[in-house]
Each structure stands twice: as structure tokens, then as C-alpha cells.
Amino acid sequence: MSGYELRRMTEDSLEEAYRLEAASYTEEAAATLEAFRYRLDRYPGYFWGAWKAGRLAGIVNGIRTFQEDTSSDDMKGSHLENGQGPNLCVLTVAVSADSQRQGIGSLLVRQIVDQAVADRLASVILMCEEHLIPFYEQLGFEYLGESSSRHGGIAWFDMRMLLHDHKG
Question: What's 49's domain CATH number?
Fold first, then answer.
């Protein structure tokens, strides 16, 4: 996939990232601009964008957590479950409609996983819609089952990728 540049999100691009989020998810499921600011302020290493010709084509972001196998509604919305836990919870993967099916989502997920590996985290967890389970399995995630979350009125499914044994 040529022509795309991955780089960490910055404050001056945050509103553009938020617009991409809003266009990718229902109003009830999309993160707020305030949630994006929280993620950028506290977890800047886990907020990436894919750019082409000066335009933001995709984003990925997440937060560190102590949860090991499920993403909670609190993490999706108010971020009550936060900290410097040994796991990364991916909260957003979004690609603009005109850039989908070009490998950008895979590129972004690999980038955030690589950052988690570099930071010696134990695992990466996320919730996805049912039709995306094969996409995440292809990237190395394990399907854990249906989530108890109904964030945004959507049925979510828990996925996990084990990285390191954090106990050692």
C-alpha cells in the first residue's frame, strides 16, 4: 500500500480525526471530541493517523487498561477504567469511506499493536461488530465471544491478542 504515511495524531489534527470518527460510527457509538482529547493527552503513543496527499484517511486509538479480556462501556465512553495497565484496549479503528478496502485499517492496527509490543504490554483487546471478526482474526486476534457491552445500541464481540507475559 503505497502513498500512505503513518504518524501520531497531534492536537492540530484532532478535529479532523473526530470528523472521521463521526462519519464512521453512529452518533450513539462515536466517541466525543472530549474523549479524543483525553486519549491524545493521556495515551499519545496509541493515537495514530494514516495520511495521503495531506488528507487523513484513517485513525486508530486506544488506552491502557488492567482489563484482560473484555472492553467495558466505561472505556468506550467516559474512560473511567484507565491507567497504566499492562494491556491496550483499542477503542477506534476508522477509515474514510473512499479509502476503505485498501489495507489502511490493517496498517493502522498493526501500528498500534507494534507500539504495544515495543512498550512490552501483555495484550491488546478490543470490541468489534460481528462482520469484522474475520478481519481481526486475520491480524492475529483471538475471538473470545459476544461482549456484554451494548455501547451505542450495537452488539459487540470481544477479541484479544496476547503479546507478552507481563508477570515476569
Answer: 3.40.630.30
